[in-house]
Write a structure and sequence with these properties.
About 35% of the residues lie in helices and about 25% in strands. The protein is built from 8 helices and 7 strands. Bound molecules: zinc ion. Zinc ion (ZN) binds near residues 68, 70 and 71.
C-alpha cells in the first residue's frame, strides 16, 4: 500500500481480496478493496479492473458511485442510479485500467434511506428533489468524498479520468487532492418516472446531462 497523503489511518483501515462477478454474460474477476473511515458507517468498496497487458502509466477511468438501495438493487425507475452503475461498469471493464468506488453511506445523496423515502413521498405531492430534501430537514447534498479520495490515493490512483456528469463531484475530489485529467460523461436516457429528477439535476444542480 502506498503512503497516505495527509491523514494517518490505522493499519487495518484497508483490506483486499478478489471478486468474481457476472457482467453481461461474462465472468470477470475484479480486485476488491474495502476501506474503513473514521465512523462505523463510513466505508467504501473499490472494485478495480486491470488488463494484464496494461501499459505502464495508464490513467484509471474511475466512477465514484453513491449507493442507492432502491436503484442499484431493485432497479427503481425514480432515479438513474442503476443505469449509471451499469454504464460505468461497461466502460470500466472495457478499459485497460478502471475502478468503481462504491459508497454505501451516500444513500439518498447522503441523507440515508429513511429520509430519502420520506422525500420521495413529498415529491409525490409535487415537490422537486431539492425542495423535498429541504422539507425533510436534510441538506440538498451531504455527500463527502474524503474517504473516497483517501482510498484512491492509497491505491496509487491520485490522477484519474472521472466518469461523472457532476461538476460538484469533480470539484470536491480536486479539493481532496485528486487530479482529474479528464471528466467523461455518462449518458442514460430518461424514463417517464425520472424525467423530473433528471431535469432538476440539470437545471438546479448544474449536472452536464
Ligand atoms: Zn438512485
Amino acid at each position: 500500500m502506498g503512503a497516505l497523503k495527509s491523514v494517518k489511518m490505522p493499519a487495518d483501515w484497508s483490506v483486499e481480496t478478489v471478486l468474481p462477478i457476472a457482467f453481461e454474460g461474462r465472468e470477470l474477476t475484479l480486485e476488491a478493496h474495502a476501506f474503513q473511515g473514521d465512523t462505523a458507517e463510513e466505508q467504501v468498496l473499490v472494485l478495480i479492473h486491470r488488463a494484464p497487458d496494461m501499459a505502464k502509466g495508464t490513467l484509471p477511468v474511475v466512477r465514484i458511485h453513491s449507493g442507492c438501495v432502491t436503484g442499484d438493487i431493485f432497479h427503481s425507475l425514480r432515479c438513474d442510479c442503476y443505469q449509471q452503475l451499469q454504464a460505468a461498469l461497461k466502460v470500466i471493464t472495457a478499459s485497460a485500467f478502471g475502478a468503481i468506488v462504491y459508497v454505501p453511506y451516500h444513500e439518498g445523496r447522503g441523507i440515508g434511506l429513511f429520509k430519502k423515502i420520506q422525500a420521495y413521498a413529498l415529491q409525490d405531492q409535487g415537490q422537486d428533489t431539492i425542495e423535498a430534501n429541504i422539507s425533510v430537514g436534510a441538506p440538498v447534498d451531504s455527500r463527502d468524498y474524503d474517504l473516497s479520495a483517501r482510498a484512491l490515493i492509497d491505491l496509487g490512483m491520485g490522477e484519474i479520468k472521472l466518469l461523472s456528469n457532476n461538476p460538484a463531484k469533480e470539484a470536491a475530489l480536486k479539493a481532496k487532492g485528486i487530479r482529474i485529467a479528464e471528466r467523461v460523461s455518462i449518458v442514460v436516457p430518461p424514463n417517464k418516472f425520472n424525467k423530473r429528477y433528471l431535469e432538476t439535476k440539470r437545471s438546479r444542480m448544474s449536472h452536464k446531462i
